[in-house]
């Protein structure tokens, strides 16, 4: 009896530990943390490369931008996962430079240079920090209907990224889209699937990382991977404070960046809610607010070392789903790796040498898992006699516009382009508005079914029911009365 009591207590204590608070071994933290870094490394270096080139910076300065982005992303990840009072959602979220502000930052560099970009990021992020309490109190407007739409759209919008990686990554390269690149991506995908099939849980969970390593080895053996430039450049480089000059605070640039911050807050809210859904943890207003404040504080401090706005990375949400490793300490370890990469550029050059095609094969599984997670969430939604189906259809369709037609908004004002060029923010805003219109604003709603309503309930005319007697029953498509005698049915054409 005593042993039973002790066992029950131990089980209850284990149950009290949330999945995101699970502490794994050092080896597991290092392996899974590195897997997170490999998943998002290409995305985190893309923004400084693009903005640096648009600003006319020298290759060495662009390298410093990349290093600063890695360093700032690592610190932001640690803040988001470990947290301090009032800052950090304490969920497995990887932070990095937000891609939503690329177009705006390029436009700002044309007028005020990189200093105006840094000043706009600091000022707009400070404004975002002030208004986070508003965003943190809207969780009741993010039911599974909305979060499912957003999660599904995140996965779908990332598919072009996976396809671009599989084709070689660099669209200007002569071998972009070559059979060799696509075949390498296919081999990596096959390795992921085979490793996932193995009985070993550890190998299955590390399937993405192991596939990337094996795929890179294959690429090196056939001459696709190039590690010749790994030794070029410094091995150690500390972040330099305001290396690009002190920030310039231009009013127009700040206003433009505020729009980017609004989009970032929407996307980060969606990512926090999405990972909460995947982990199985309730995200209340306080937790959401802490996560958004961490986002904004990181964005305020990032320009000090030469980086930009910070946001959660959607692809790593997919990694949490596909591996089943939901510990925030694993992601915090990934943050430490990012800090190390920011201090050791040589390690970053090694990771950068991983062929894009290898990442594309792994990314297909990762991003597809995000989509599948969203579909699973949407399966929980009630579609009977309401407008939820049209909300899902319109929101996802609206989110796919910038993916299917990237130049769709190019003739609109810049602020519209900034908001709607992202399929994630487009779908999120549409889902929120339509959910408010049809499910919260009851005025004007019809009590009659619309052609868009997914009504699955049976509808039988009253006059048909009135013709039935007590005891009548159907058997094998025929109607019988209580005595078992068949009741003739009038053919439909006789009506």
Automatic annotation (TrEMBL):
Q: Specify whether Transmembrane is a keyword of the entry.
A: yes
User: Which branch of life, at top level?
Assistant: Bacteria
Q: Which InterPro entries match?
A: NCS2 (IPR006043), UacT-like (IPR017588), Xan_ur_permease (IPR006042)
Q: Where is the signal peptide?
A: none
Chief localization: membrane
**GO molecular function (one):** xanthine transmembrane transporter activity
How does the record say this protein sits in the membrane? Answer: Multi-pass membrane protein
Assigned keywords, A-Z: Cell membrane, Membrane, Transmembrane, Transmembrane helix, Transport
Q: Which residues form a coiled coil?
A: none
Q: Which GO terms describe its cellular component?
A: plasma membrane
Q: Where in the cell is it found?
A: Cell membrane
Segments traversing the membrane: 30-51, 63-87, 99-132, 144-168, 180-199, 206-224, 244-266, 329-352, 358-375, 387-409, 415-438
What family does this belong to? Belongs to the nucleobase:cation symporter-2 (NCS2) (TC 2.A.40) family.
Please give the name of this protein. Purine permease
């Amino acid at each position: 009896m005593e042993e039973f009591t002790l066992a029950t207590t131990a089980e209850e204590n284990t149950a009290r530990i949330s999945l995101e608070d699970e502490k794994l071994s050092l080896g597991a933290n290092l392996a899974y943390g590195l897997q997170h870094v490999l998943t998002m490394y290409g995305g985190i270096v893309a923004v400084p490369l693009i903005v640096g080139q648009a600003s006319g910076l020298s290759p060495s300065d662009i390298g410093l931008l990349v290093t600063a982005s890695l360093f700032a992303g690592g610190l932001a990840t640690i803040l988001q996962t470990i947290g301090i009072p009032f800052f950090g959602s304490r969920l497995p979220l990887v932070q990095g430079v937000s891609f939503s502000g690329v177009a705006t930052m390029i436009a700002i560099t044309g007028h005020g240079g990189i200093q105006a970009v840094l000043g706009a990021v600091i000022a707009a992020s400070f404004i975002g920090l002030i208004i986070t309490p508003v965003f943190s109190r809207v969780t009741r407007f993010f039911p599974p209907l909305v979060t499912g739409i957003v999660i599904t759209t995140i996965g779908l919008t990332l598919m072009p990224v996976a396809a671009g990686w599989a084709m070689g990554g660099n669209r200007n390269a002569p071998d972009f889209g070559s059979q060799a690149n696509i075949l390498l991506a296919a081999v990596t995908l096959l390795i992921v699937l085979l490793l996932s099939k193995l009985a070993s849980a550890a190998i299955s969970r590390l399937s993405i990382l192991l596939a990337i390593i094996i795929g890179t080895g294959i690429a090196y053996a056939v001459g696709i991977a190039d590690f010749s430039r790994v030794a070029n450049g410094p091995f150690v480089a500390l972040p330099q404070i305001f290396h690009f000059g002190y920030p310039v605070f231009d009013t127009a640039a700040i206003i433009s960046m505020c729009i980017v911050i609004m989009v970032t807050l929407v996307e980060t809210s969606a990512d926090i809610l999405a990972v909460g859904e995947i982990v199985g943890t309730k995200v209340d207003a306080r937790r959401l607010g802490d996560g958004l404040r961490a986002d904004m504080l990181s964005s305020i401090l990032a320009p000090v070392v030469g980086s930009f706005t910070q946001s959660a990375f959607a692809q790593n949400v997919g990694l949490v789903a596909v591996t089943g490793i939901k510990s925030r300490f694993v992601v915090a370890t990934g943050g430490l790796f990012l800090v190390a990469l920011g201090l050791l550029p040589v390690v970053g050059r090694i990771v950068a040498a991983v062929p894009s095609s290898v990442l594309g094969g792994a990314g297909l599984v990762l991003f597809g898992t995000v989509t599948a997670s969203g579909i699973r969430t949407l399966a929980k939604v009630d579609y009977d006699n309401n407008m939820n189906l049209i909300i899902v259809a319109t929101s996802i369709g609206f989110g796919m516009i910038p993916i299917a037609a990237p130049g769709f908004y190019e003739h609109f004002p810049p602020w519209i382009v900034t908001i709607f060029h992202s399929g994630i923010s487009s779908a999120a805003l549409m889902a929120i508005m339509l959910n408010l219109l049809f499910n919260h604003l009851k005025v004007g709603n019809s009590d009659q079914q619309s052609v868009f309503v997914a009504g699955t309930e049976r509808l039988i005319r009253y006059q048909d029911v009135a013709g039935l007697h007590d005891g009548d029953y159907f058997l094998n498509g025929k109607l019988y009365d209580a005595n078992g005698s068949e009741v003739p049915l009038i053919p439909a054409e006789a009506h």
